[in-house]
Design brief:
The complex is a heterodimer of chains A (about 120) and B (about 110). Helices cover about 0% and strands about 55% of the residues of chain A. With about 120 residues, chain A is mostly beta strands. Chain B has strands spanning about 5, 10-15, 20-25, 30-35, 45-50, 55, 65-70, 75-80, 90-95, 105, 110. Helices cover about 0% and strands about 50% of the residues of chain B. Classes of the chains: A mainly beta (about 120), B mainly beta (about 110).
């Protein structure tokens, strides 16, 4: 079965400090992995994706994510957090099911960046 | 920049009433998705269209939910009758095809009293 796990409901970090939001996945076949961000009462916005190639993927707003096949993880990172990064972050995996691609989302991690 | 449009943005209704949500995908996007996001959870796919055809509605509660995309462009999701447990954010997304990244609309927040 395909699934995505985000083990932390909430991550707190001080502004200027590095941040990590964790994601692990389970998928048959090659994983296609994504991170989205959601601000209050808004839809999901795409941040970055891993399809193939370099394990370190760079995305929007200074975010990056590291794909680790052996640990089946795709953690989101940023070297220096901003207060404006405070939002809800979702990890997602795309899987081919009966010849159609389906996206599975994690339960989300609320990031709180304090001044 | 093209966006997915949804209306209404907010809907309050009483249980047993009927509600309908509308989605206009990005022009040219063949794939359209309806997701339900319960507070504190990730989006859950309700139904996926490829043009006007339903390709996945395995998680759609068909006794009360229906979805259509008659001309393969905009789409309507209906709930009849609404139940308290239907309170959630309903997100529409679209993509050029099933391989491409979905772009999400702002969502409709439904509250059932």
């Amino acid at each position: 079965a395909q699934s995505v796990a985000q083990p932390e409901d909430q991550v707190n970090v001080a502004e200027g400090n590095p941040l990590t939001v964790k994601c692990t996945y389970s998928v048959s076949g090659n994983p296609y992995l994504f991170w989205y961000v959601q601000y209050p009462n808004r839809g999901l916005q795409f941040l970055l994706k891993y399809i193939t190639g370099d394990n370190l993927v760079k995305g929007s707003y200074g975010f990056e994510a590291e794909f680790n096949k052996s640990q089946t993880s795709f953690h989101l990172k940023k070297p220096s957090a901003l207060v404006s990064d405070s939002a809800l972050y979702f990890c997602a995996v795309r899987a081919l099911i009966y010849n159609f691609n389906k996206f599975y989302f994690g339960s989300g991690t609320k990031l709180n960046v304090k001044p | 920049e093209a966006e997915v449009a949804q209306s209404p943005r907010y809907k309050i209704t009483e249980k047993s009433q009927a509600v309908a949500f509308w989605c206009d995908p990005i022009s040219g996007h063949a794939t359209l998705y309806w997701y339900r996001q319960i507070l504190g959870q990730g989006p859950e796919l309700l139904v996926q269209f490829q043009d006007e055809s339903v390709v996945d509605d395995s998680q759609l509660p068909k006794d009360r939910f229906s979805a259509e995309r008659l001309k393969g462009v905009d789409s309507t999701l209906k709930i009849q009758p609404a139940e308290l447990g239907d309170s959630a954010m309903y997100l529409c997304a679209s993509s050029p095809d099933t391989l491409a990244l979905p772009f999400f609309g702002p969502g409709t927040r439904l509250t059932v009293l």
